[in-house]
Structure formats: structure tokens, C-alpha cells
Design brief:
Layout lengths: L7 E6 L3 H4 L4 H4 L5 H4 L1 H14 L3 E7 L13 H6 L26 E5 L10 H8 L3 E7 L1 H14 L3 E10 L3 H11 L4 E3 L1 H8 L2
Helix pairs in contact: 4-9, 7-8
Length: about 200
């Protein structure tokens, strides 16, 4: 991790207002989580260090695309789990879709429609155009967007590091199991370990 980070990026998965802010969709729906809420403050210094060493900060933005009559297109499994989601939530260009203020600005962002940030998005194209071959991944949720994105990066031969305390899930046990399950396809480091490695 040390040295020139010209080919590295910190990938922030779904750290958006509608997920994290008390006035966002999940906050209004009563779906808050202390472990998730703590991530922006923990990751912000690492994002600054990445930029200082020549790396990029890229954010994925979970998005609900408006369909007929402006109603969001929501997959059946998500609608079943999160029935409170509705019109305007995670809408393209909205405040709720945006990355939380603590992690702004980001160098690039990619809208995503499902768990993996590679599924039907421009992320693979963007990484290739920017010459990115190494990703450090943090965000939410560990067992969903993070795990799917990390595995898809692995099959594309991208060198991936997962931040063990830079990710979170709604259950600490689910988070722990998910991190352990990613060890065969990614390096695992804490945020502090990663920050120290940047300055070796």
C-alpha cells in the first residue's frame, strides 16, 4: 500500500444521505445503526491521506431510478425488506442519493442499481480509463454491496483490500462473518493499518 498511489483508489460504497443521515430515507424509516453511522468520521482521514499520496476517492451511489409516474423502480426483494422506500428516495441527482458531507468531495462517482458496483454500471470502464488497478473498499453493507463489489473486483484481477472496520452491517455478527468470508479474495486491513501503510 505504500508508495505512489497513482493506480489506487479508495472506493466508498453507498455512504449516502438516504442511508446514513437522520433525515434520509432509512433514518425516516427507523433503520438507523450506530456502526454504520460511525463510518464517515472513521473514513474521512483515510480519504484525505489517499488524496495526499496521489490516490483517488471514488463513491458508489445506490440509485432508485424513477419509472412510471415518477414512482421508483424497486426490486421485489428490496421492497419486501424496506417497504418504507418511496418516491424521491435515492433519486438521481437528489440530496438523498449524494455522499454524506463528511466524505465530500469525491473524485468520481458511479450510480449503481444492485448490490455490486460493477453490475450494469460504468465502474469497470472508469477504473480502466483512470489506470486504477488497486482498490481499498469501505462502506455498506458488508454482506451486500461491499461483498458483491469486492468479489466482482477479484474476478477482474483487481488488487482489493477490504477495511475491516471501514465497513459495517446492521448486525455485528453478520459483518464479522462477511469479512471472514472475503479473506480468500481480498486483503483485510483496519483503517489505521491502511493509513499507516500509506506513509511507510
Amino acid at each position: 500500500m505504500s508508495g505512489d498511489l497513482a493506480h489506487a483508489a479508495l472506493l466508498l460504497v453507498d455512504l449516502q444521505n438516504d442511508f446514513l443521515h437522520p433525515q434520509g430515507a432509512y433514518g425516516r424509516g427507523g433503520q438507523s445503526c450506530a456502526d454504520i453511522a460511525a463510518l464517515p468520521a472513521r473514513l474521512a482521514p483515510l480519504a484525505q491521506a489517499f488524496r495526499a499520496k496521489g490516490g483517488l476517492v471514488i463513491a458508489t451511489l445506490f440509485t432508485l431510478v424513477p419509472g412510471r409516474g415518477g414512482e421508483p423502480i424497486i426490486s421485489p426483494h428490496l421492497k419486501q425488506m424496506r417497504p418504507f422506500l418511496g418516491r424521491g428516495d435515492f433519486a438521481p441527482g437528489s440530496w438523498g442519493q449524494a455522499v454524506v458531507d463528511e466524505l465530500q468531495p469525491v473524485d468520481a462517482s458511479v450510480e449503481k442499481l444492485a448490490y455490486s458496483a460493477f453490475y450494469m454500471t460504468r465502474l469497470d470502464w472508469l477504473l480502466r480509463k483512470l489506470g486504477i488497478t488497486r482498490l481499498v473498499v469501505g462502506g455498506i453493507v458488508t454482506n451486500g454491496g461491499v461483498a458483491s463489489t469486492v468479489r466482482d473486483a477479484h474476478v477482474r484481477d483487481i488488487d482489493v483490500t477490504v477495511l475491516s472496520d471501514g465497513c459495517a452491517a446492521f448486525s455485528p455478527e453478520v459483518h464479522r462473518v462477511s469479512i471472514d468470508a472475503l479473506r480468500p479474495v481480498a486483503k483485510v486491513m483496519s483503517v489505521d493499518e491502511c493509513a499507516r501503510a500509506l506513509f511507510q
